[in-house]
Structures are given as C-alpha cells and as structure tokens.
Amino acid sequence: MYLFSQANWNIILYNMNPGNNTIKKDNAAEIALDEKDIAILQLLEEDAKMTIRDLAARLNLSATPVYERIRKMEQAGVIRQYAAIVDPSKIDKGLTVLCYISLKEHGKKAGSKFIKEITSFPEVLECLNISGQFDFMLKVQVKDMIAYHDFNVNKLGELDNIGHMESVFVMSVIKATHRVVY
What we know:
The relative contact order is 0.16. The strands form three sheets. This protein has a four-stranded antiparallel sheet. It is of the alpha+beta class. Strand 7 (124-129) and strand 8 form a beta hairpin. The protein folds into two domains: 9-84, Orthogonal Bundle (Arc Repressor Mutant, subunit A); 88-169, Lrp/AsnC effector binding domain/regulation of amino acid metabolism (RAM) domain (Alpha-Beta Plaits, 2-Layer Sandwich), CATH 3.30.70. It is built from five helices and nine strands. The two termini are 26 Å apart. The chain is elongated.
C-alpha cells in the first residue's frame, strides 16, 4: 500500500510546538505525538513514498498501527499535504527573488486586502509576515530578470498599499529543505 505514487513527495508540517511534541491545528484540539509518531514523520519527510509496510518494518510495528497513526496525523492537520519538490531551474524558473515590503497602511482591512492580492499571484511561493523594517517578505520564483521586471511593474506595482519595497536576488541556494522534524 502506497501513501502516494508520484515522484519526490515530501511532507509539509505546521504549528509544531518545540519541546513538547504537541500539534495544534487551527480551531482544533492539540494532539500529543509520541516517539513513534515523530519517527514516522521523520521517515516520511525523508521519503513520503514509503509504503506502510516499509514504515512498519523500520519502526518494528505492524502495518495497521502505522496506518492509524498516519491517518490520525493527517486528520489533525499535522501532515497537511504530500507535495513534489520541483527543481525550478529544470522548468525554466531559475530566478529566485526575495521581496521585502512595507505597507503604507497597517489596518485590518488594508492588510487583508494586501494578503488576498499577493496570495493570488502564482509567482509568489511564500509570503511571510515579518518584524523589523519591513512588514512582509515574499519569495518569488520567475524565469529571468525580464519576467521579474514584468511581475514587479505589472503586478506588485499595481497594488495601492505598498509603501516601500526592496528586492534581493538569490545568487545560489546553499541549503533548502522542508524538513521540520529533526
């Protein structure tokens, strides 16, 4: 039995409270994760295509408890999705840009409008609300500088609440991982 059959699947996790191994999904009760759950997550982050049988063998458990533990973590939102990790350079999206953005207005309506607009742009892979000089950091993936210029002028430039923006161009990626269980 396979979890999924596509190539290069990985686990994406969220809201993990360091130190106490509890997970809280939005508006859901916390669930406690024991050592076996953490071990399952570590193995799935390594290779989410592992069969239930292979996971069980590595953990010295039978298949049914492993399946139930995975199902429990999926239902609780510990495991949000299984996703292919794609090399952007292999699909002609070789330029990564980090955009730091400060908003003019910081009210709830203005912030919500900005978030709604920015999350609609497929070029934006990540949008982080940050502290410090800027309000948001965007990770943008595009083909090249011409494509980024077009994105900057015709999409970001059209948003009316941006007060200041700085772009940083990634020269090379030293480390990139989705692993949060270590």
